[in-house]
């Protein structure tokens, strides 16, 4: 007997407290159609016609698999659990603009699930995932001027208003005014700012691992950390009682699974940088000898980068002067 479930792209579902964001499946079409073929939902969405023809649900779902495989857009089902059953709550999607390092976020929630923070929970998660994992620096979104609820969602998850615009709404049969929003890394998922005027010094040890070809290892900050999505030198904060070398040996083992000796850590330069909540003091070491093959043990992406290519990787501002020094060294 053929497998009744058609293959869906290998997207690892994103979890939130109450929902799962997963690739849409062909069998979601009847539920998707029922939820979106609702005037109160469709009239807020730019690209959704009303009435919504049933075959369009199949076409849309199939198109999401193509765009996901191409790395151009991720349109996901928001699903929840009711007893033993999985229920479709709505959809959330992010679409990259091929011309710029930007992407657009959109979402809708079935009317039965309104009023419980579902949009903020799902859209917030996809926004953070996008900034942490896609080659983008900002995410944009828009909402109809009269759609105060959607604007509140965008503000709640970290978007800032960036102006007014106009957009064609298929369901409304013409152009309508919209409020435009934008979110950058520094707007999203950053720790709360220190309330006091005095900033504590944050001591972080970092290391430029250099391989036999003169390439430098960069690691991408994973989702959940401040500045997720930026590339950095492996390392981390000093624990109480640790020397910078002790901290690096520990961090390089925890993050990359490699063993390094103190004698192989050569002090190279340091960064002194005012952040919003603290002042970062970061000694940078260079290391050419270690044991083991570096692996992203905390789910972080790694890249071996030629010195002349280092500046094409977006990095925290504190690292920028260090990159110039490293290029001179190598
Ligand atoms: N490791 C590392 N941290 C950097 C670099 N540049 C830079 O500004 N930082 C900052 O230094 C701090 C390091 O914190 P972290 O969160 O990575 O430290 P950690 O590994 O001890 O993390 P944890 O507190 O989650 O356990 C962050 O604020 C980070 O943004 C860099 O090149 N490497």
**What is the N-to-C order of secondary-structure elements (H for helix, E for strand)?**
EEHHHEEEHEHEEEEEEHEEEH
Q: Give the neighbour order of strands across the main sheet.
A: 1-2-3-4-5-6-8-7
At the third CATH level, what is the topology name of the largest domain? Aminopeptidase
Mean pLDDT value: 92
Shape: elongated
**Any low-confidence stretches, pLDDT <50, length ≥5?**
1-6, 190-196
Main CATH class of the largest domain: Alpha Beta
Helix proportion range: 10-25%
The count of helical stretches stands at 7
Task: Write out the CATH superfamily name of the largest domain.
Answer: Gcn5-related N-acetyltransferase (GNAT)
Taken together, the total number of domains comes to: 2
Largest sheet: 8 strands, mixed
> How much is the radius of gyration in Å?
23 Å
Tell me what the CATH architecture of the largest domain is.
Answer: 3-Layer(aba) Sandwich
Gap between N and C termini, in Å?
A: 61 Å
Estimate the strand proportion.
25-35%
Tell me which ligands are bound.
8-OXO-guanosine-5'-triphosphate
Structural features, described:
- The chain has helices spanning 29-36, 39-42, 54-70, 118-133, 148-156, 244-256, 320-329; strands spanning 14-15, 20-23, 73-82, 85-97, 102-109, 138-144, 160-169, 174-184, 201-209, 216-220, 231-232, 235-237, 266-274, 279-287, 302-305.
- Strands 1-2-3-4-5-6-8-7 form an eight-stranded mixed beta sheet, with helices on both faces. Strands 12-9-14-13 form a four-stranded mixed beta sheet, with helices on both faces. Strands 11-10-15 form a three-stranded antiparallel beta sheet, with no helix packed on it.
- Helix 1 (29-36) packs across helix 3 and helix 4 crosses helix 5 (148-156).
- It has 330 residues and is of the alpha+beta class.
- The structure holds 8-OXO-guanosine-5'-triphosphate (8GT).
- The site of 8-OXO-guanosine-5'-triphosphate (8GT) has 15 residues, from strand 9, strand 12 and strand 14.
């Amino acid at each position: 007997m053929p497998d009744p479930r058609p293959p869906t792209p290998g997207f690892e579902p994103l979890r939130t407290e109450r929902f799962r964001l997963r690739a849409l499946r062909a069998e979601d079409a009847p539920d998707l159609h029922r939820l979106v073929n609702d005037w109160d939902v469709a009239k807020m969405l730019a690209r959704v016609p009303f009435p919504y023809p049933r075959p369009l649900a199949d076409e849309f779902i199939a198109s999401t698999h193509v765009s996901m495989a191409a790395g151009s857009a991720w349109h996901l089902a928001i699903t929840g659990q009711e007893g033993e059953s999985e229920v479709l709550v709505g959809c959330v999607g992010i679409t990259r603009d091929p011309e710029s390092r930007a992407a657009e976020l959109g979402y809708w929630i079935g009317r039965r699930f309104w009023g419980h923070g579902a949009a903020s929970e799902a859209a917030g998660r996809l926004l953070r995932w996008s900034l942490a994992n896609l080659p983008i620096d900002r995410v944009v979104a828009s909402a109809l001027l009269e759609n105060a609820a959607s604007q509140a969602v965008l503000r709640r998850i970290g978007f800032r208003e960036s102006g007014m615009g106009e957009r064609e709404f298929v369901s409304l049969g013409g152009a309508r005014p919209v409020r435009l929003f934008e979110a950058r890394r520094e707007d999203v998922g950053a720790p709360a700012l220190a309330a006091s005027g005095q900033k504590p010094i944050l001591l972080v040890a970092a290391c430029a691992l250099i391989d036999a070809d003169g390439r430098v290892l960069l690691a991408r900050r994973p989702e959940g950390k401040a500045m997720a999505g930026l590339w950095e030198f492996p390392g981390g904060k000093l624990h109480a009682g640790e020397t910078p070398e002790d901290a690096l040996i520990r961090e390089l083992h925890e993050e990359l699974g490699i063993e390094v000796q103190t004698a192989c850590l050569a002090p190279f330069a340091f960064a002194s940088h005012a952040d919003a909540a603290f002042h970062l003091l970061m000694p940078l070491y260079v290391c050419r000898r270690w044991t083991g093959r570096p692996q992203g043990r905390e789910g972080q992406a790694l890249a071996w980068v030629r010195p002349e290519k280092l500046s094409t990787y977006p990095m925290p501002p504190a690292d920028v002067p260090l990159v110039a020094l490293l290029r001179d060294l190598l």
